[in-house]
Amino acid sequence: MTDDRLPLAELMAKTGDGDFLRTIAENVLQIIMEADVDGLVGAGRHERSGDRTTWRNGYRDRSLDTRLGTLNLKIPKLRTGAYFPGFLEPRKTVEKALVAVIQEAWIAGVSTRRVDELVQAMGMTGISKSSVSKLCKDIDERVHAFLKRPLAGDWPYLWLDATYLKVREGGRIVSVAAIIAVAVNTEGKREIVGLHIGPSEAEPFWSSFLKDLVRRGLTGVKLVISDAHEGLKAAITRVMGATWQRCRVHFMRNALAYVPKGQNTVVAAAIRQVFLQPDHAAATQVWRQVADQLRARWPKLGACMDDAEHDVLAYMTFPEQHRVKLHSTNPLERLNKEVKRRADVVGIFPNEDSIIRLVGAVLLEQNDEYQLQHRYMQIEGMAALATPMIEEAQPLQITPKAA
What we know:
The protein is of the alpha/beta class. It has four domains: 91 residues, no CATH class; 50 residues; 131 residues, Nucleotidyltransferase, domain 5 (2-Layer Sandwich), CATH 3.30.420; 80 residues, no CATH class. It has 15 helices and eight strands. Strands 3, 4, 5, 6, 7 and 8 form a six-stranded mixed β-sheet that branches. Helix 10 packs antiparallel against helix 11. It is elongated, with a radius of gyration of 28 Å. 29% of the residues are buried.
């Protein structure tokens, strides 16, 4: 067996008083890990033994936060099998999912050079299929329970956004959409309510996803906010019976595509005047004025604004306290960035199950954070949710009589 212990005097000579205890702790934990690995290998470092079952294969760094400060440890790696010290906490669910996805790609022989290098850096060379299966089973059970959980109560607002990922399918690499659904209930609380994988443009895809949400208990939806995906609007009307809000940010990008780049700033400023109006009636009036002004120079832009008017301004008929979060899918941006950050490490997923495993784990942890936060929307606006639409409709009927 190896003996990595240093005499107390030597340790004191190498470190200052402030770092002495931390260095002692690091060395003690390192000795424990070395002893554990000696037992797994069946021999000490550089020791010849007929009882040897495998060989050491370097180290991987891991930090441990303690009262003494952050300890920098080096976890021994094995050429076959794996070792993880019992005194360290296992990785978070997302990290486990990421490891599982990479391991699947490695075992299936479909990993890219980038994934290959990452696997070796993480010390997972030669891990067994049984270990992968056990790890995946634990993650899948938690993720599926989260994604299929029943939904209680009414959910007035629903956001849908797509993140595109690459996956191997039938020997080809194809792009699929991972649709994430986030909803707010009548208590003003935000939750992640669904994940679906498929082609985002197909109406059957959207209908299937929305029907699944309804079966799980997503009721009382009054407004669905998303980008302009083909087939989505019809699916929302048929399945949800709700109003559709076209993402204002995505609309602006589409509209400015009809304008020379040198004119983008001026045109964008003109259109934004619409969104500064206090109510739906005023916003509609300014929208038509701006559309007519721009139509003279850019007919296609005018036609685009005509087609999008009702969908882009739908949020203006809802409570004023909520409008700042209803006009676009921006509330999902931070979540999508975290999903992409994790997915970019994998690059190409071996199958759709691995996408659900990794993305679902990210959503599970983010949803836990949502539950610890304050209300996402003011509850006063929820109480008056239907009132603004009635009040704004009345002036159109009363004004002619008063005149």
